[in-house]
């Protein structure tokens, strides 16, 4: 996966523009591939699968300006990170349907979904001839794009709450205007997709394909989606099913050192379930590319410049760890040195993916892009979710606390010299379910700090469930104009989509 450079586009498989239609040109063969001639071999089907993975780059790369990169959507709304910059995801009251980052996120999400749906259609149509040599690849490929589509629906639900469900390739105009989903339908579809994916994905890939999703990936993400759905619906059955999925995961474990999860030399390790496969910038790299044509290659690095002010002209667009996040940790917790810069008072105080030698591209390239993979789903997240599901389903509190203590033990073992004394294990002395649940969310905040929007997604679902009230929450923001209202749990849909699609409604409050 790390060596992929030029990937085909599934949405624009090259047509040909004819200069004229006289007898000398009308019989010419098209230049390059056309849809009619593609999707015929295992190699072409593999290219199409990798083309679906390739769309992930649009969510993680530098997009040419401080208000363009999409990480703001899931990193800034919570209370882990803050910025002085004019990001409405930080202070909420400035959000509207014309927000460029939200609109790009929506567009790229449905481009990825379209790629997945196209490939599933072609597998159905051509699978019997395309997979003659390796018939097992047909299931593997379907499982991969089902996983990626499900991940996209999971992100869409956590961003907008409601967005269209597109289960099949759109080839007719009458199907081009789907309505909003309702309730948890986006999560429902993700859970269904992942159930099938877990049945057909391989247990593992060879070294040449390391980083492609596996059965464990599908089980982990499905369990996570079930916990999220159960939180807002109160369904105990969802928590029970999530535990079953988590228990079915095999062959993975926590790394011996916490920092191994953010070191470029330790990518796709034993704790990893899903990573964006970042790479060095290509020679024909174009950071401004935001469409679905690949005449030039979009940026394939992971952007971390918002932690270090790269490029320098981004000014105050720096994401800093909040004091409330840093205060969660006990002094001496070894995770502190892997997450934060120890020098007090720094604005650029987050080093999780850029500590020491983790920077690549000297260091991070002019735009702050790196080939260090963002870890999207890792086993520590799964153990914490399992602990939560155990508590919420009325299970044994001692079992939940034991899972928490696995995370804390690994933290103690991650000290640079000898084993640390903190964080010490939790010990039950008559605590209630609600107390243990708060322990879990505190541990999730520390263990998963500044990664993948875990904190915002946790706060959002708990607010939807009525467990917390974000209107009175201390976001510890640098912005004095922060103003959270109930409707901000769902960000605005692109206004242009709402205007052009008569079947679609804007989220309440926008």
UniProtKB/TrEMBL annotation:
Superkingdom of the organism of origin: Bacteria
Q: Where is the RagB/SusD domain?
A: 353-510
InterPro entries in the record:
SusD-like_N (IPR033985), SusD_RagB_dom (IPR012944), TPR-like_helical_dom_sf (IPR011990)
Q: Which parts of the sequence belong to the SusD-like N-terminal domain?
A: 96-221
According to its UniProt record, where is this protein mainly located?
A: membrane
Tell me the compartments it is located in. Answer: Cell outer membrane
Alphabetized, the UniProt keywords read: Cell outer membrane, Membrane, Signal
| SUPFAM superfamilies per UniProt | TPR-like
- Does this UniProt record's set of keywords contain Signal? yes
* Homology family: Belongs to the SusD family.
- Quote the protein name from its UniProt record: RagB/SusD family nutrient uptake outer membrane protein
């Amino acid at each position: 996966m790390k060596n992929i450079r030029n990937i085909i586009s599934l949405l624009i498989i090259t047509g040909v523009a004819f200069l004229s239609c006289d007898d000398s040109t009308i019989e010419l063969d098209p230049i390059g591939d056309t849809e009619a001639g593609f999707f015929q071999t295992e190699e072409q089907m593999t290219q199409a699968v990798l083309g679906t993975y390739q769309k992930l780059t649009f969510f993680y790369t530098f997009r040419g300006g401080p208000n363009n990169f999409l990480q703001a959507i899931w990193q800034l709304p919570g209370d882990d990170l803050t910025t002085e910059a004019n990001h409405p995801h930080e202070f909420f009251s400035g959000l509207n349907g014309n927000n460029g980052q939200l609109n790009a996120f929506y567009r790229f999400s449905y481009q990825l979904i379209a790629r997945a749906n196209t490939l599933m259609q072609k597998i159905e149509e051509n699978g019997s001839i395309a997979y003659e040599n390796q018939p097992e690849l047909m299931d593997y490929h379907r499982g991969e794009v089902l996983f990626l589509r499900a991940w996209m629906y999971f992100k869409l639900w956590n961003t907008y709450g409601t967005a269209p469900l597109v289960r099949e390739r759109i080839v007719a105009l009458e199907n081009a205007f789907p309505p909003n989903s309702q309730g948890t339908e986006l999560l429902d579809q993700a859970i269904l997709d992942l159930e099938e994916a877990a049945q057909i994905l391989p247990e593992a890939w060879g070294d040449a394909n390391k980083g492609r999703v596996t059965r464990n990936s599908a089980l982990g993400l499905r369990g996570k989606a079930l916990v999220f759905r159960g939180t807002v619906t109160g369904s105990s059955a969802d928590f029970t099913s999530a535990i079953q999925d988590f228990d079915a995961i095999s062959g993975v474990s926590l790394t011996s050192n916490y920092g191994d999860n953010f070191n470029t030399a330790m990518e796709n390790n034993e704790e990893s379930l899903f990573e964006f496969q970042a790479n060095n910038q290509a020679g024909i790299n174009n950071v401004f590319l935001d469409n679905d044509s690949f005449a030039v290659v979009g940026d394939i690095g992971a952007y971390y410049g918002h932690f270090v002010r790269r490029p320098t002209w981004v000014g105050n667009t720096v994401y800093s760890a909040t004091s409330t996040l840093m205060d969660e940790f006990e002094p001496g917790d070894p995770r502190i040195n892997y997450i934060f810069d120890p020098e007090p008072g720094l604005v650029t105080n987050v080093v999780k993916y850029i500590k020491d030698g983790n920077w690549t591209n000297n260091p991070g390239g002019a735009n702050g892009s790196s080939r260090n993979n963002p870890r999207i789903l890792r086993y520590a997240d799964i153990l914490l979710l399992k602990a939560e599901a155990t508590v919420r389903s009325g299970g044994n509190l001692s079992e939940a606390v034991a899972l928490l203590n696995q995370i804390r033990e690994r933290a103690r073992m991650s000290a640079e010299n000898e084993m640390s004394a903190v964080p010490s294990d939790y010990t039950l002395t008559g605590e209630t379910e609600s107390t243990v649940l708060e322990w879990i969310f505190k541990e999730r905040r520390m263990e998963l700090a500044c990664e993948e929007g875990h904190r915002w997604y946790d706060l959002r679902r708990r607010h939807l469930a009525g467990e917390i009230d974000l209107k009175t929450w201390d976001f510890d923001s640098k912005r004095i104009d922060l103003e959270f209202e109930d409707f901000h749990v769902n960000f605005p849909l692109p206004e242009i989509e709402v205007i052009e699609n008569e079947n679609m409604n804007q989220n309440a409050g926008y």
